[in-house]
Design the sequence.
């Protein structure tokens, strides 16, 4: 069974940093693209970052230069390093598995990690 | 960036009725790379349809998708009680990947 388990969310002050992790199991992690998708309260889903199986990386303009996505295929884990956090980054962050190596409708999602940026 | 606009914002129907949800793109969606998701309160989205009309694994055949270019439709042929939720569309043919704002399907 495919499982994605996020960790690392929490409360952080504006300007602070957090690192999210997503532990994957039940599939060959290295063969699939992975994304971080967030949802602020009452807002539409927003793709934050994607990393393809080839390690090609994409970022939303809203996080470019502040967030860094990475993957460790030996540990079946996806990461999102978030720096210079702003109030508008407050959201539930989902780890999501692409349906293929570089094609990203998402056929599996984690349970979500809440990130709250507030003083 | 492709902006996806869904309509209606809220759809009120009864179990057993047919639901038709619309997703309109600001530009043509490449290769019909359009997906639909269902999301219930406090839960992650669930993939229903990808590539405009392909049902994801385990999705009942009462869910169907159609469309091309800039206009896409999700149809639920006969609503079951568990179908009342928020539905979002997503295009993944052009960077950045974008989502619609969602249609809330509520019990009438």
Sequence:
């Amino acid at each position: 069974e495919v499982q994605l388990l996020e960790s690392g969310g929490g409360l952080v002050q504006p300007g602070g940093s957090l690192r999210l992790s997503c532990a994957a199991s039940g599939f060959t992690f290295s063969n699939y693209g992975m994304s971080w998708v967030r949802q602020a309260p009452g807002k539409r889903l927003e793709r934050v970052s994607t990393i393809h199986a080839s390690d090609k990386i994409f970022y939303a303009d809203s996080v470019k230069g502040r967030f860094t996505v990475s993957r460790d295929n030996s540990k079946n884990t996806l990461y999102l390093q978030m720096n210079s956090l702003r109030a508008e980054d407050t959201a539930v962050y989902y780890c999501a598995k692409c349906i293929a190596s570089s094609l990203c409708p998402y056929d599996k999602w984690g349970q979500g990690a809440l990130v709250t940026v507030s003083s | 960036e492709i902006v996806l606009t869904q309509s209606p914002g809220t759809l009120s129907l009864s179990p057993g009725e047919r639901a038709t949800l619309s997703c309109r793109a600001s530009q043509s969606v490449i290769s019909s790379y359009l997906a639909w998701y269902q999301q219930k309160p406090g839960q992650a989205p669930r993939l229903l349809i990808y590539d405009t009309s392909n049902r994801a694994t385990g999705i009942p055949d009462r869910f169907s998708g159609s469309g091309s270019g800039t206009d896409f439709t999700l149809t639920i042929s006969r609503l079951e009680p568990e179908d009342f939720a928020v539905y979002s569309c997503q295009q993944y043919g052009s960077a950045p990947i974008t989502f619609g704002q969602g249609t809330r399907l509520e019990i009438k």
About this structure: The two ends of chain A are 40 Å apart (CA to CA). Chain A has a mean pLDDT of 97.
